[in-house]
Every structure is written in structure tokens, then in C-alpha cells.
Amino acid sequence: MKSYSLRVDGASTVLHRGEVPTPEPATGQVLLRLRAAGLNRGEFIPGGLVKGGAAKPAGIEGAGEIAALGAGVTGLKVGDRVMGRCPGAFSEYAVMDAREALPIPAGLDFEAAASVPLTFLVVHDMLVLQGRLKAGEWLLVTGVSSGVGVASLQMAKAMGARVIGTSGSPDKLDKLKALGLDLGLATRQPDFATAVLEATGGRGVDLVVNTVGGSVFAECVRCMGFEARLATVGYVDQTLKAEIDLQALHAKRLTLFGVSNKLRNADQRAVGVPAFTADILPAIADGRIRPLVDRVFPFADLPAARAHMEANAHLGKIVITMAP
After folding, report:
1. Residue 99 burial (CB < 10 Å; 0-12/13-18/19+)?
2. What homologous superfamily does CATH list for 2-116+291-321?
3. What confidence tens digit (pLDDT) does each residue in 112-162 have?
């Protein structure tokens, strides 16, 4: 089968397309005939989701049809349309933990479905499982035009929250107003606390999703209200250290947490899937949440899709599609 792999070469990652054997599903796994796969910035960053050493299968989320079942798999059958997290998703076939296989709602095509698994499961973790966001509360999203940022906006609005977002592109912020963005702040600098506090009547936000990194971390803390929570999910600025205001942490009873699949084992990754299925999948099925796909590239054009992402030209998710 055709498949892409990634290897680290100094300070960059190199994509390679080749022919590899079609994998066999092990116990508790399904073999997926992939129809589409989503791109995620972190998987192309050395030291992020990809380590040094031998080349590794590329891609971490996709959508397709079940082609075979491993031993012990129940509740699924060959031909089912499913989406989920799976290593090696930039391939014609890949194996997936059956516990991660989410049914694709009838009205969702494969390209939109491939935009759901990793991004929306991560956002559910940030907003619901750890972030405890409630209707009427304020959410701040730095880098709101990213895939995770847009999904955070969509999920928060479906939950009845109010959303402030930052982006370096005023045009992207204008487009996100159609998705319910309450306030867009056009900036890439740590200079937005005053505007956030003014918008929230001086009380600050209840939850922050920081997709940018350490360069805005201290400013995010300044935006937080009493008993607010801050989720760190990315560091596209490559700034891995930041100052922490311990007095604010103490006096305002703040909660700081990270969200990552990097060190989680299969059991830990699977544990949040049932809650996501109950909390969010119905909103995707009935159209209250519709994944925002920026652009779809053919499988052979994965390098171009990567370049489009690294140029920061996209709004929402970038997807590759496999030939039928």
C-alpha cells in the first residue's frame, strides 16, 4: 500500500512516500481503509509528536471504512464508516484501537470527519473534562484561527459560553464572527489583557486555551478571573518557558493544566472517548457543530498541504483525501 513516513533530520522533519505492507489488526484493533486524514502542526515539529531515530509512519487521525476486525472486537463490523485517532493515517490503510473508533454521522463526509478525532477530542478534554466550562462563562483562545482554536470556538458556543479570540489576521477574525466569536483581537503580541478585562467587565475570563505558547503565557494569566483555568495545548512560538505570577496563582485560586496525547498510553487515550461520544457527537450529528475544513489536498500532494499549513494561510483544518 502507499504510505508516508516521517523522520527527523536536524531541526526539521522529512516526509517520504513509499510502498509498505498493509498492516494486520491485532487483538482489539480494526483495520481502516482510509478515505481522508487530518493534518496537525505538532506532528511535523521535531521533538513534538515525532522523535529522532528511524522513520515512523506519518499521520495521527483519519476517517474511512472498516476493512477487517481484530480478535475480540465487538459492536463494529466490516464496512462501518468510522473516524478516530490512528498512527499512520497518511496511508491507504491503518490500524486503529477499536475503542477509539467513532461512528461518522450520516450527514458528515469523510473530509469533515477526518477533521474531528484528534482536534475535537483534545478540545473536549480542555473545555469539558478538565476546563469545566459552563454556559455563560468566558473563554479566551489564543490563536483562535488554528484547527484547535476554531474547534474550541465551535464547542464553546454550542455549550453556551462567550468567546474571545486572538489572531494575527483581522480577515480570519472577521470570518470567525459567523461562528459566534464574540470578540476578536488582532494581535500576535502579549498585549491583549487590557481588552480582555474590559470585555469581561473587569472580572477576567473563566478559561483560557493557549495554542500559542510561552510568549503569551504571562499575558494569559493576567486575563484570568477568580478560580479560572488555563489549558496549554501548543507552542507554535517555540517558546517553552514562561514566567508564572505566583501571587496571582495563589490569590485567584487558578488552575493550570496541559493537554497532550504524547505520554498517554492506549488505555488513557481511550478513557475519554465515551464522554466525548455522549457530550459532543450529538452536536456534530445534528449540525450544531460543523468541522471547518479550510482546504482538501489529494494524497499525492501531502507535501503541499504541509506547506500550506506552515505558511499559516489556513482557517480551520487541512485535510488530505485518498483516491476511492
Report:
1. middle
2. Medium-chain alcohol dehydrogenases, catalytic domain (3.90.180.10)
3. 999 999 999 999 999 999 999 999 999 999 999 999 999 999 999 999 999
